[in-house]
């Protein structure tokens, strides 16, 4: 469900209404991106109505602050009639398109857009590299920001990585560049996206608790290319038939990367151990600290994107700076992050692995006997796809949370007699951690790579990862 108007028409309409400051702008959802959107619209001289269905202390506090800054705010309720008469509705990515405020706006012909759309329209001089994909997008975005900074640019990492794009526009001296991570939910409502370089890392089924089909999910990823032109610069993997099918026929200059092929612009040459970019070796794989071929792919994607963004990024001096910068990039929190290594047991926090494919990638990186913590809120995929990698590396699977019974049911039969599967219940994450410690011996890895969202026990994957790290430090 969404606005039926072509992206270019919708983006143009929103741009006109922002330029004219026409009518009242509505913002639904008062988490960080919603708050930033309200503040930016107010700073731009727009009349703003904001609402959030939650009555939490955090939302009440945010609402009071925004009222002091001149917005009209409802907490605990949405005024649907008011929203249906607004000029533009700005929606937070966590709110599904079937929610009543969004349905009311769409039925009334009100443009529904993301905070990203509004922020980009109000920062026309911003140069940005936009990254999406099922997995790898956060690491790739962070790498892009890291590499651009190594080249001397003032850069912010924004979007789904944590900082709203609107916060840049509120700065006294905003950065010239941004590394912009975009989820499928954000892309759904960002019709004017037109990056200096666009990156698609991977595609695999995800968010089937929100999307009716994989095709619907892929269609939102494809919105990255909605405004593609012949001069557009794109970076995609050459290792995915789904990606090839999705981008077929889209205009632009295409730069592809691979960890298996060498007939592309960015590749890993296993014989020499070198990463090659635009026809020349750039840096040895051994200088890049992150484990796994998936992180080699992320590095190739980031390097290609930065080098494609400006001809000056491909000079010999720039290449030398980029090669040096790759060696100084470390693991991001919650992405195969080592949190404790004690008594010969390594505890790895991969809480960001909220779907089957990302957990498969984590398992493929393991080279030691592994106790795998799987669980959380189910997202619609079968867990049997994990079986080959579990058979290769797992010592045990501890299934927990709302999805625990489903995980056990999917895995017990195919793993029977080879990998122990234990259902730890739905209530206590601490109990799961103590059970993992009781099973682990020197030489083992305890891996939190849940393949599920965190919302049964935690507010987000970051909170889940922090609790894993805290408990590991206590009990290891």
From TrEMBL:
Stated role: Cell wall formation. Catalyzes the addition of glutamate to the nucleotide precursor UDP-N-acetylmuramoyl-L-alanine (UMA).
Q: Name one GO biological process term.
A: cell wall organization
Q: What is its main location?
A: cytoplasm
Q: What is this protein called?
A: UDP-N-acetylmuramoylalanine--D-glutamate ligase
Report residues binding ATP.
133-139
Similarity comment text for this entry? Belongs to the MurCDEF family.
Give residue ranges for domain Mur ligase central.
Answer: 131-305
Recorded catalytic activity of this chain's protein: UDP-N-acetyl-alpha-D-muramoyl-L-alanine + D-glutamate + ATP = UDP-N-acetyl-alpha-D-muramoyl-L-alanyl-D-glutamate + ADP + phosphate + H(+)
Q: Give the metabolic or biological pathway.
A: Cell wall biogenesis; peptidoglycan biosynthesis
Spell out the Gene3D superfamilies in the cross-references. Mur ligase, C-terminal domain (3.90.190.20), Mur-like, catalytic domain (3.40.1190.10), NAD(P)-binding Rossmann-like Domain (3.40.50.720)
Q: Where is the Mur ligase C-terminal domain?
A: 334-452
